[in-house]
Structure prediction request, 381 residues.
Amino acid sequence: MSRNHFLVLIGVLVALAVAGAGVMWLQRSDWRSSNSKVGEKLIPGLVVSAVEKMRIVEANESVTLNRVDDKWQVAERDGYPAHIDRIAEFMAKLADLKITQLEPMAESQRARLQLLEPKGEPTKDAGVVVELEGAGGKSLGRLLLGKRVVMQAQTTAPSKGAAQPTGRYVVTGSDAANVAVILDPLPNAEAKPGLWLSRDLIRVSNAKAMQWGSGSGRPGWSVIRENETKDWRFADSGEKLDNNKVQDLVSVLLYIALADVVTDKTKGNFDKGATLKVQSFDGLGYTIRLGDLEGENRYIKVALTGEPPTVRVPGKDETAEEKDKLDKTFVENRKAWMLGLDRERKLEPWTFLVPNSNIESLSRDRTQIVPGAKKDEPKKS
Prediction:
């Protein structure tokens, strides 16, 4: 080999070494670039109070939550009030989520992590999209949530513990080339509108009189009591009733939670259903109409009338100091009470679905509240 050939060969080897080093540096640079985001916020700079709209989309369902006059509403339920606590909890998580792992991944590999865009066609490989918008429709963040990361539960038993979701694969709108892992499975990221509705329906307390009737011809009843410590009795006769069965009904009225809001006003068949009217010692009147069953739920409508007292009736032998203290407490409690009543007054135009198992006692006719009555049987009215 001549000296010139040798020098040329050395030059080629040096050039190859430099090129190889350059490729390695570039690869190492890319690796550092993607992994430098580990520990950073998943949605950098997200301010929860700036969010005006949140949309969650799955393959065959979606829900849109809008903030109107600082009150959250569910668009798919004609603007019915949304579940504030659920929204606040979910958004707080989104603002706090951090990237724990980040890797580049081609589109063709993402189906196995359920990171395909939902297209309206049900598929097990489609993810869940979460979109956040601010004023003027400005995008504040977009996530494509995929498969949950699971870890085997620790157990001392010979058999393995059940797999527990500990995180989730996700692609952000600001970094679509990489797949991130977060340490939260985000179970609330569901596109079912019913889950995002405010759960409170009505709270009826201090009942003093109740009247029940049915458009289907079942025997009605009317009961009263002198005060909250007295037993109930029929208002129209001296017939004996089962006070425990009536009291069960009163207990149900203390809190009724909805399952969903019905946007189709023609549903329910309320003409043949039961109607319960309740008068309270506080001067309030509730009318509760029961409709048909829909699976495990029952259609229901509610209306509120009357005004609560504006002043407290002093008790016997109250001192001036006690009266002043109790009057102040009454005024403070009444403010919160009136807020709840204002909300309940707005429920009349709506039709709801309520778990029938929770309100079954509201369907009891006269034959079912007398001593020796048989156990309640499911009825359509």
Remarks:
- The helical segments are 3-35, 84-96, 243-253, 320-345, 356-359.
- The longest strand covers residues 139-152.
